[in-house]
Design brief:
Ribosomal Protein L30, Chain: A
Length: 61
Amino acid sequence: MSQGIIQVKLVRSGNNRPETQRRTLQGLGLTKMHRTVKLKDTPAIRGMIRKVFHLVKVVAE
């Protein structure tokens, strides 16, 4: 089974958020607003997205 790709876009700022959420955004590679990154679809990445779901939008799976 091959791992798929997820595209994630930052739609809300990480400013004035808890430090753990800001670090999670950095870990996902989302450092600037409206940037889209392609990530491997792994359970770890899914967990990180779940932690900041209110700040990001999953563009494609």
